[in-house]
Amino acid sequence: MKPWQEDLVTEFDDEVTPQDIFKKVEEAARELGFDYCAYGMRAPLPIANPKMILLNNYPAEWRSRYEQMKYINIDPTVLHARRSRDRLIWSDKLFADTPALWNEAQSFGLRVGWAQSTLNASGVAGMLTLARPKEALREPELQVIESRLRWLAQVTHAAMSRALGQKLGMGTQICLTDREIEVLRWSADGKTSSEISTILSISDHTVNFHVKNAISKLGVTNKTAAVVQAAVLGMLA
Questions:
Q1: Residue range(s) in the chain whose domain bears CATH number 3.30.450.80
Q2: Which residue spans within the chain are E strands per DSSP?
Q3: Which CATH class is domain 178-232?
Q4: HSE-up of residue 139 (Cα within 13 Å, Cβ side)
């Protein structure tokens, strides 16, 4: 018998559309004891207004209300996902600053929840949320199922990244050379072209040549934007 991790990966690899993948997520969520699930993906670019895709099986009235009230802008689970990869369990304390959102969510049966954010090498962020109307998540249950919850979050993000990459404008792979990355990395540390030329034992002209190429490949207009975009995409790590 294949281990459940391998089984999940195999099942998700067979699916080619986001809708098909999400159906598998729903099935896995039910097996783990959750009635509802949601998945959100956020592209790293453009930085000021990144593209987002949201899928869930929440009650239709709640989906409409959430969108109408623009709750995504104040949702503490979303804010948490942007700054941390730690798993999150819903609580009154978590929603203390957003009582209206929390009260309405509970009125639609969304009272108990678990969420895990993920980030891939391209800087694409995702968050899987599983929820149910009752039976609080306690430590004995978490000890049994949390490894599967985390694995489901990772597999879902990998599968959705493949399926949604084109829609989010991630279909074209940006490939910088090792030298271009090296020059941008030193630029990120505040080094001038002259200082970089000394560090790398190349001419100022060559440094600027690599910067110009990086700017062109990244589709930006200046060195600062190139450094920021490369960093966001995880190229300078």
A1: 4-164
A2: 36-42, 52-56, 88-89, 112-119, 125-132
A3: mainly alpha
A4: 0
Q: Please count the other Cβ atoms lying within 10 Å of the Cβ belonging to residue 144.
A: 11
Q: Report which secondary-structure segment, H or E, holds 230.
A: helix 223-232
Q: Is the pLDDT of residue 143 over 50?
A: yes
The answer to whether 206 and 197 have CB atoms below 8 angstroms apart is yes
pLDDT, tens digit (0-9, with 9 covering 90-100), for 4-16: 555 555 666 665 7
pLDDT of residue 161 exceeding 90, the answer is: no
Chain region(s) in the chain for CATH 1.10.10.10: 178-232
**Residue 20 tokens, joined:** 């098909």
Phi, psi of 121 (to 5 degrees): -65, -20
Assess contact for 28 and 8: CB atoms under 8 A.
Answer: yes
Q: Are 152 and 25 in contact (CB under 8 A)?
A: yes
CA distance 198 to 164: 43
pTM for this model (two decimals): 0.76
Neighbouring CB atoms inside 10 A of 28's CB total 23
Q: Single out the residue of 133, 123, 130, 140 nearest to residue 42, CA to CA.
A: 123
CB 146 within 8 A of CB 121: no
| Domain at 4-164, CATH class | alpha beta
Q: What angle do CA 117, 123, 127 make, to 5 degrees?
A: 20
| Residue range 86-98, pLDDT digits in tens | 999 999 999 999 9
